[in-house]
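Here is a complete protein record:
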Amino acid sequence: MVKHVSAYGAKAIDKARAKTPGKTDGMPGPTDNPATNLMMADVVIRAGSYVARRAIEKGILRGRYGKDVAKNIVQNKTLGQSLVSFGLAKLATKNLPGAVIVGGGALVKTLYDRRKSRGHQRREGDRELIEQAHRDD
């Protein structure tokens, strides 16, 4: 089975190489080096997603806490919080079982929160976020 898959992959790579021109005259990007162009594109995409994520986080919090407090909450995220978010997102996007695990966990957390009273949920969330906003003060 594995030999069949590797042989099939090798044929596909050979076909792709035959169709790919050896010259870089039509290569899109600022340089003729495709690896450099790919790296630059990756940096631009990641920086853009970082800026968009921060803006969305602030926008979600701004309505309830105000502009300055929302900014402080987003800026004072701990390394642990960032790593957990990154890890869960990576797990969810890698494969279907990861997406099911992360989605199931989010569903369980939602159901758990809904069992609590709304006032208790709001107070708990407010307390955590206000503490996060004033962490460096």
Q: What stands out?
A: The radius of gyration is 23 Å. The chain has one domain: 29-133. The chain is about 80% helix and 0% strand. Residues 46 and 52 are 10 Å apart (CA to CA).
